[in-house]
């Protein structure tokens, strides 16, 4: 008897789930790099390690975060809103909805591509509706898997 | 030999886990709808797509987000703090703590109901302690499952 | 045939995954306690329950959140960015990468310790690079598991 974990569907789930997480973890790295480059931090102790500032300069710096950094933070938050739900949905989909390998692969690939393109649109501030379109494609993909999983156990 | 995925406990987990995710994903939709209705966005490129503003108007709009939108954002963030941990806890609970079907069903139903009521209290700004009560019920439900799972593997 | 859920690796995963979630859920409790202690809330209805304020006082309170509370909120957000991805990565690692029990235990223990120390550094505002170091150790641990999982299914 083959375990569910040895099916190609589950293998595809692990592959694309892990790649989505890797994409999301990269946002933490990017935030760190941009914080260093811009010299813009959220905590007072982060400043004193890299050069002394007067109390007034420190207060001003903390009160006005860099706009580009805020953009990256929002992009990261959008990943946090979408990628963990996608992976949990994917788990339900693979374990409960008995999907074909093609169905798994295309759901997972379209989601991952939509999130990568979403981040590119967000970070480069590309004109709308490019970002909205990327978001929608990923969101609909997750909903499609979620509805299949709910239908399977109803 | 029946796989763990064919138990009614696991089926209940998939059903209520998927419904909780659907509830959380709806917050993204609601945010989008309210942003359109209020004409309040977080990024400069989101404004230029829907009508031209002078640079000063744009700056003012970006600096003062709509209070109702901020409320929905906090409500969504509260879901993000609670719903993915609930699902991961539920997975540990079902796989490790060997719960009865009744125990599963009631934990999952109470949690889901508490989160739906929490959002209603939050969005309608109902007087406290209504929202606090809803939050606490969901939080205690998650803790109860988490403690059972920890006890089972200790 | 032993199920994957009866392996000591999976048991270690449930134990440390559940402890990480418990650590993260504690941040919600801490936020609540500090909100009460500081009398600093994010919503107008939270104030009217605990004492009447004039509209101007209320507006001022809502506009200037307590700095210590903001610090706890950022600390909680950092947990949300790192702990659910760790658990999902741990699931992929245990199910797909066929790790030894020692490898599991050490990855999980180091991650959990790094997150607890990270929160201590954050909340007490310890001088940098203490917090950066804790973050990096946990982040690298997650990446190590993620790369092993991706390599296993490639």
Automatic annotation (TrEMBL), chains A, B, C:
Protein function: Conjugation of reduced glutathione to a wide number of exogenous and endogenous hydrophobic electrophiles.
A molecular function (GO) term: glutathione transferase activity
Chemical reaction(s) catalysed: RX + glutathione = an S-substituted glutathione + a halide anion + H(+)
Domain of life, per lineage: Eukaryota
Record's bilayer topology term: Multi-pass membrane protein
Keywords linked to the UniProt accession: Acetylation, Endoplasmic reticulum, Membrane, Mitochondrion, Mitochondrion outer membrane, Transferase, Transmembrane, Transmembrane helix
Pfam family name, one: MAPEG
EC number, UniProt record: 2.5.1.18
InterPro entries per record: MAPEG-like_dom_sf (IPR023352), Membr-assoc_MAPEG (IPR001129), MGST1-like (IPR040162)
Assembly and interaction partners: Homotrimer; The trimer binds only one molecule of glutathione.
Protein name, entry field: Microsomal glutathione S-transferase 1
Compartments it resides in: Endoplasmic reticulum membrane; Mitochondrion outer membrane
Signal peptide (from-to): none
GO CC annotation, single: endoplasmic reticulum membrane
Entry similarity comment: Belongs to the MAPEG family.
């Amino acid at each position: 008897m083959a375990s569910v974990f040895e099916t190609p569907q589950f293998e595809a789930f692990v592959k694309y789930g892990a790649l989505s997480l890797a994409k999301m973890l990269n946002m933490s790295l990017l935030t760190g790099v941009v914080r260093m480059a811009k010299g813009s931090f959220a905590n007072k102790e982060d400043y004193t390690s890299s050069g002394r500032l007067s109390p007034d300069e420190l207060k001003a710096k903390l009160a006005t975060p860099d706009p580009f950094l805020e953009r990256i933070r929002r992009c990261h938050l959008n990943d946090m809103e979408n990628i963990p739900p996608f992976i949990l949905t994917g788990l339900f989909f693979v374990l409960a909805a008995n999907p074909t390998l093609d169905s798994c692969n295309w759901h997972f690939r379209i989601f991952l591509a939509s999130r990568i393109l979403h981040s590119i649109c967000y970070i480069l501030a590309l004109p709308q509706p490019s970002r909205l379109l990327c978001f929608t494609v990923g969101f609909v993909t997750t909903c499609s898997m979620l509805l299949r999983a709910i239908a399977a156990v109803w």
